[in-house]
Amino acid sequence: MKKIIHLLPNAHLDPVWLWDRSEGLNEGIRTCMALVRLLEEFPEMVFNRGEAAVYHHIETFAPELWEQILALVNAGRWECVGGNWVQTDHNMPSTESLFRHYREGQQYFREKFGRAAVTAWAPDSFGHSAGIPDLLAANGFRYFSFMRPQKLELPDDLFRWSGPGDGTLLAYRLISYTAERDVAPGLDRLAEYQAERNGRNIGIGFGLGDHGGGTSRGQIEGALAWAAAHPEFEVRFSTFRSFFAALEEEVASGRKLPEFRGELNYCLRGCYSSVPRFKRLYRQAESTLLRAERTVETVTPPTHAPSPNLKPLWKMLFFNSFHDILPGSAIARALEQQSCQLSAVIDGAFEAETAALNRLVAAVDMPVPAAPAADWPEPVPLLVFNPLPRPFHGLIELEESLDYRPIYRFRREDPVVEIRDDAGNLLPAQEIPEEHNAMKHCVWRKRLLVPLELPPTGWKVLTFATRTRPAPYPVPAGIPAKSSGENGIRNRFWQISGTIGGDSLSLKNATGTLLPLSFALFRDRFGSWGGMSEEPESIHLQELLEVWQIRACRIVESGPLRSAIWFRIEGAASHLELTLRLTMDSPVIAAELRVFCRDRACRLFLRLPQAEQLLCDVPGGEVERHVEGQFPAVGWVKLRYPDGESFGFAADGAFGYDNEEGFFRYGVARRTLYAGDEVDGASLHPELPVSAGELTLRFLLSSEANTIRQRAEELFQFPRVLAGWPHRGALPSTGSLLTITPDNVRIVEFVREGENIRLSLQNGSGTPVEACITFLECRCRTELPPWKIVTMTLHP
Description:
The protein is α+β, with helices and mostly antiparallel strands. The protein contains 14 helices and 43 strands. Helices cover about 25% and strands about 30% of the residues. Strands 17, 18, 19, 20, 21, 22, 27, 30, 33 and 34 form a ten-stranded antiparallel beta sheet that branches. Strands 23-24-25-26-35-32-31-28-29 form a nine-stranded antiparallel beta sheet. Strands 4-5-7-6-10 form a five-stranded mixed beta sheet.
């Protein structure tokens, strides 16, 4: 029986790479015009086209072409594949945004073409996390076709791929998604490759490369000529739908398929750390938009306010997850433009969230006590909102003006503020430096830390009042966070210290376990993608250039609620500034980092002792890792040591880690060329731009590893404080809108559909749980198996 070669015509188009998005998207119009003409010329020809962003661009600016494509789709000669907005990266977006990405793409395909895609098509994405099958299966996909990573050993090109939640796809790895202009040599190689392999149906991508183009007339004619010269094969032009249908028939006839669980990684590992400034901006945009949506959709019903349309912001975020944007492998000009777009997402989300909270402020009861003296400032009501569906316990930073002019009768350090809750109780507080550095001879504004318990997805009203006379702030019972000598701070969970001239900070937990924290610069000779040929040196960066040394230290907060210490840590040409904070009764070290890296062709690592085992947050699930070179993780990593100690680490910057040669390392900064693949390019071309300048980062280290997921969520979804105005309102001064238990249940989607809410949940506990959901007056329970994404409708 003849083997069947399915030529899968496509036009791989990077909307941003060595060009910007205006060029890339317009190329989508040119390419699709050319393919429409070729389909008219060759009746046996079909075409596969993904990426809703390209279709949307055609629909908007080339309506005649749009109508031609619709006709071809209806005729079955043009298949819409992929089901995404763009060909997204599959290792770095959060579970929530990646799920929404495919949900939005599929909705677009259903609305415009009458049916969703059945084949997820990600040929050029740089590896795929273990949770992708669950994310795709939850969005209606049955098939998955990919190419990378090409060097990953698989039991067969065709296999069933399952996620931790048992979402399963029929997956096929193509040897290529493109073809040369002369197709005969490539078809010869394919025939030779398939001679000894199982299966009758063989798929191969068929079309020109990365700047669109698609299948050419010469390729079509060359394939027809090759088929005529090789009657031992049947050659077809196929859509992905027809190709996978043929594979399904083959399986039904008895072809045995291997089963595969786990991630399809690794590939081009330098991308996990390239252009970290952009990666952090993406994280900010992602978390700000998720927080804004949760706030808007929960606050809208009780305030009877219109729900704003956040879809344009989501689409901009999705676009920036593209596999040459988020990985940092595009040109500098394009990444600058995309940074502006992400900033627009952040600003738009912030404005939507602020508008929703202002409506809540207007509806909430906000009385304030009378001023303590005649012609004295009136107290200010503050609304503090927790976006997470579980209670928040921790410190909140509050800053307000004492009056409309500086108060010269007080000194800057005088304790002249009182914070009270809605019941009138005086709350403990600690002053910390204000954000401004002006008019230090007097007092105008005050910034305070206040310990609060906030209800799930809810609010609490506080009043900020200026006393007429200074009085000490109340202090809660317990062991304070405080300074420990000139070079250290401590609380009941941690002792932190550093010695001027030393090359590591001492982090010692309550059991006496010492975690030295250091920063070291390593040679990184490779371009944006890392080693294009997977060179071992690019996977295991071990050429140490220097370990940076502590050059200055200062206690900046001395308790009792929080203590903080600042370090300046230097290399020969570069330096960083690190602030570490300890909170009373908290196992978390909170850190802020500013890096000024002037070296080139290097990687700056944050280092802790090497762990025996790591558990890493990845899109759709968790993955266990040990020693395997550079690897990606999204929000957090659990480190487990041989003595049984375990710690949690989370960061809001880049995504690259490793765990070998004595160290667990996080890639803070990477200094390589933009869109460069030349080994030593950053050293050989000093005239070319390279990612540089001030880089900021926040990270956490917790001595309670089992709660690092929740701590990481608080790092990204922190409470919001909004100053209000005194008034009476219909809503109480403390309230909760949404509660979901237990804590290990994650909200993947919370979206309004008319009067209802579409809620998608994922249980990350590893064992079945019963989720309890309360939204306003709506209460329900549902069983959640481990990791499977379950969608339901709430009727508030």
